[in-house]
Each structure stands twice: as structure tokens, then as C-alpha cells.
Specification:
Elements (H helix, E strand, L loop, with lengths): L23 E10 L7 H12 L5 E8 L4 E8 L2 H9 L1 H14 E11 L9
Antiparallel strand pairs: 1-3, 1-4, 2-3
Keywords: Monooxygenase, Oxidoreductase
InterPro entries: ABM_dom (IPR007138), Dimeric_a/b-barrel (IPR011008), Jasmonate_Hydroxylase-like (IPR052936)
GO molecular function, one term: monooxygenase activity
């Protein structure tokens, strides 16, 4: 298991994040994009990635989207206070509002406390 202070942040490779030392929290954001204009979506996504890294207690995230349009992002946070700080960030709230108005057909958010975590890596 990994020490949280040494954990890599974000995605960008095909390697999953390490198993963190529990307890910690995950936020699972599952979404389907609209068939409409997605202008500004990628730029906003990049900006949210920059902003969330500034939240104390943010550990990292992993994200994937199927060819059919289902997207799943799993974000890892040390505690509920970190999630609440991220949730209340002004730019994040503005992006959520724009997402509901323009980009998302539907989405769900699940927040869970992780009690056990482990990983495997072939040598």
C-alpha cells in the first residue's frame, strides 16, 4: 500500500493509481454526454483537473470513456472535508451548471468510504 503523501496525482497513463492506505473516500462520477455541441468541454475538463489538484486531501483520479459515450471518473480523497471543499469551489460549481445545461445527458455521483484497498503489479 502506498503512503498518501507519495501518491501520484491524476491520470494520463494506462497504469492505475496505487492502493491507498484506508480509510479514504472515493467519488464516482458516471456520465453520458449529449449528442449536441461539446465545445468548451475539454478545456473545462482540463481546468477542473488543475483546480482539484489544489485541494488539500485530494489523492488523484482515474477516468475512462467508452466508445458508446459512458464516462466514469473515480476521484480519491483523504476525507469528507476535502470532498466538500472541492464541491464548493466556485469554478467547479460553474462547470457543473454548464455541464447540466450543455454537455451531459445524464450523470450520477456516488460517494463512498473505502475500508480496504490493495493492488497487484507484475514484476
Amino acid at each position: 500500500m502506498s503512503d498518501h503523501s507519495d501518491a501520484p496525482v491524476g491520470t494520463g497513463s494506462v497504469t492505475p493509481l496505487p492502493a491507498f492506505e484506508p480509510p479514504y473516500y472515493v467519488v464516482v462520477f458516471s456520465s453520458v454526454l449529449t449528442d449536441g455541441d461539446q465545445s468548451g468541454y475539454d478545456e473545462t475538463d482540463e481546468r477542473m483537473d488543475e483546480l482539484v489538484r489544489e485541494v488539500p486531501g485530494y489523492l488523484g483520479h482515474e477516468s475512462a470513456r467508452t466508445p458508446g459515450g459512458l464516462g466514469i471518473t473515480v476521484s480519491y480523497f483523504r476525507d469528507l472535508a476535502a470532498i466538500e471543499e472541492w464541491r464548493g469551489t466556485g469554478e467547479h460549481r460553474a462547470a457543473q451548471k454548464r455541464g447540466r445545461a450543455e454537455w451531459y445527458e445524464r450523470y450520477t455521483v456516488h460517494v463512498a468510504r473505502v475500508e480496504r484497498s490493495h493492488g497487484f503489479e507484475r514484476a
